[in-house]
Design a protein that fits this description.
Blueprint: H1 2-22, E1 33-37, E2 50-54, E3 73-77, E4 83-87, E5 101-102, E6 108-110, E7 117-119, E8 127-129, E9 138-143, E10 148-152
Antiparallel strand pairs: 1-10, 2-3, 3-4, 4-9, 5-6, 6-7, 7-8, 9-10
């Protein structure tokens, strides 16, 4: 009697996981183009783990081209020493003014509005607690190994 019940729970979880993975991220596509200087302005990102948030006051690749995504950009130097970037906007709230905030240990980013907690230090951005179903919108990163990280989409 218990096995069919467990099987139905597992099947429900798998359907939910597949649905969440195949649905498009609710955060709209906005341009992102940042150049981070780890030797000067962004040197806090050199340590592992670390995080920095970027909005209108950051360093766009070109001063004429301001590209900070929908709600800004969160850049994380993960526990695996790689750089990861996410949109700061909470996918559940889907408003540019509601931005996630990294915790002091740079493990999670938490939405102050809905309370959803997203795992960030491994680069996944997946929700681990709260009402959110979609992960944080990811952006691409490239490091030249000499102190510059480019964030783009």
């Amino acid at each position: 009697m218990k096995r069919p019940h467990i099987a139905s729970i597992v099947a429900t979880l798998l359907v939910g996981l597949v649905t969440a993975c195949t649905e498009p991220n609710p955060i709209d596509n906005y341009p992102v183009a940042l150049r981070l200087d780890l030797t000067f302005n962004d040197k806090a990102l050199r340590t592992v783990p670390s995080a920095a948030t970027y909005t209108h006051y950051s360093h766009p690749i070109s001063s004429a081209y301001r590209a900070f995504g929908f709600g800004g950009v969160l850049v994380v130097h993960g526990v695996d020493a790689k750089f990861y970037a996410f949109d700061l906007s909470c996918p559940y709230e889907n408003r540019s003014s509601v931005r996630v905030e990294p915790d002091s240990d740079i493990i999670y980013a938490v939405c102050p509005q809905c309370g959803t907690k997203y795992l960030i230090n491994d680069g996944s951005g997946v929700p681990v607690e709260g009402v959110g179903r979609h992960g944080l919108k990811p952006y691409k990163t490239e490091s030249d190994g000499r102190g510059t990280v480019i964030v783009y989409n």
